[in-house]
Design a protein that fits this description.
The chain has ten helices and ten strands. The chain has helices at 11-14, 26-38, 54-57, 63-81, 100-119, 150-160, 178-184, 224-242, 268-285, 300-314; strands spanning 4-8, 45-48, 88-91, 94-96, 125-128, 167-171, 190-197, 213-218, 246-251, 290-294.
Length: 317
């Protein structure tokens, strides 16, 4: 048995938002290529992501939001058949194509299947190489390239379906995970710790967070050593006091110094260090249980190398 699972599905490649969009299928190609070239992929327990059930997605999202997404998808497919446009725009950055609905079900389904496999002891931890990403999707709204909040759905699922008492979410994307905060705020069974560039999209997370939110906004050009120090001071004591039974990670790699989506100064070694600190917490309190889901990371080289670094720590390579 491999200790680290790797969940993905070809449907996650079919969703795209138009030529030149940074959140593109090639992101997953870059990761796959890197895992192949380095041999890291050989050490992983590869699994195909199922589709999440709507009942499970509705643990984190309003039924109306789920129905609206499905309705938009159905209408777009009818328009495409009638010779209409290939995309339907939700906001200036976010649109759907004919495959977005299925890809979104697979992305959330990967997180749920990973949760089941880790809870069953089939693997110690898992990474979900999925798109669309999720952490900007609020309870009732798609935004910021995100439709369903994969990590929040999985966290709620672990609490409701697996009857856990305490779950933690760790978010190190360059952008604030406003959707995850919206879904988990004031739930005493959840603790969310995050670090993000500010002021920056989505311009949230710095005002009066709920008591179960540890939001750490940092200015542009903050370097890796400073972020490590902040994590030691701000995240770790709260995680240790909370003693989570499972840890979920919103793994965004767009804080890399070579990623022009943001202006933070992280490197592969910083992502490995953060992963190790999260793993230390999980091994101490959570039987090692971690489910990590891909969020941002838009320049192919640094994205692929950072995912490799993250996986090497998860899999003890």
């Amino acid at each position: 048995m491999s200790k680290t699972g790797y969940f993905t599905h070809r449907d996650c490649w079919k969703h795209e938002m138009g030529p030149g969009h940074p959140e593109c299928p090639e992101r997953l190609d870059a990761i796959e290529d890197r895992l192949l070239i380095t041999g890291v992929g050989d050490a992983l327990d590869r699994r195909e992501a199922p589709e999440a059930s709507l009942a499970d997605i509705e643990l984190a999202h309003d039924r109306l939001h789920v129905a609206a997404m499905r309705g938009l998808s159905d209408r777009l497919n009818e328009e495409i058949l009638a010779g209409g446009p290939s995309y339907s725009q939700l906001d200036p950055d976010t649109s759907i194509n004919a495959h977005t609905w299925n890809a979104s079900l697979r992305a959330a389904g990967a997180a749920l299947a990973a949760t089941d496999a880790v809870m069953a002891g089939e693997m110690e931890n898992a990474f979900c190489a999925v798109r669309p990403p999720g952490h900007h999707a609020t309870r009732s709204k798609a935004m910021g390239f995100c439709f369903f909040n994969n990590v929040a759905v999985a966290a709620k699922y672990a609490l409701q379906r697996h009857n856990l008492q305490r779950v933690a979410v760790v978010d190190f994307d360059v952008h604030h995970g406003n959707g995850t905060e919206d879904i988990l705020a004031n739930d005493p069974r959840a603790l969310m710790v995050s670090i993000f560039q500010h002021p920056f999209y989505p311009y949230s997370g710095d005002h009066d967070p709920a008591p179960n939110m540890v939001n750490v906004p940092v200015p542009a050009y903050t370097r890796g050593m400073d972020i490590r120090e902040i994590i030691e001071m701000m995240w770790i004591p709260r995680l240790e006091a909370f003693k989570p039974e499972m840890v979920f990670v919103s793994a965004g790699f767009d804080g890399h110094r070579e990623d022009d989506m943001g202006q933070l100064g992280l490197t592969e070694s910083d992502y490995a260090w953060i992963t190790q600190r999260v793993k230390d917490i999980a091994q101490r309190y959570s039987k090692g249980r971690i489910v990590s889901c891909l969020e941002g990371g838009y320049v192919m080289g640094p994205l692929a190398r950072s995912v490799e670094a993250h996986l090497r720590v998860l899999a003890d390579l």
